[in-house]
């Protein structure tokens, strides 16, 4: 069997799986609030197709920005409620010290 016959299907499968599990980074802007559970946060008044985003995981310290308008960057992850957009945050940009 030629190596290409193994490599290309494996590559296609890997790309399909990474897309399925939300490996595409994206940004969302809104007002940062504390979440329902310790160490979680919520982005409210989101500018975009959803109004609220649960920030279940973060590599960024978000605590000092509660009540501020921020832009978060991250990937979609599976959350407790499949109907709610849930993200793992990998970056954050502070926009204003207050929210509308």
Ordered list of secondary-structure elements with their pairings:
Blueprint: H1 3-20, E1 26-34, E2 41-44, E3 53-58, E4 69-76, E5 85-96
Parallel strand pairs: 3-5
Antiparallel strand pairs: 1-2, 1-4, 2-3, 4-5
How far apart, in Å, are the first and last alpha carbons?
62 Å
Query: How confident is the prediction overall: mean pLDDT?
Result: 82
The portion of residues assigned to helices is 10-25%
**Domain module count:** 1
Number of strands: 5
Any overview of this molecule?
The chain has 100 residues and is an alpha+beta fold. The chain has a single domain (25-96), classed as Nucleic acid-binding proteins (OB fold (Dihydrolipoamide Acetyltransferase, E2P), Beta Barrel). The chain contains one helix and five strands; from the N terminus they run αβββββ. The longest helix is centred in the first third of the chain and has 18 residues, at 3-20.
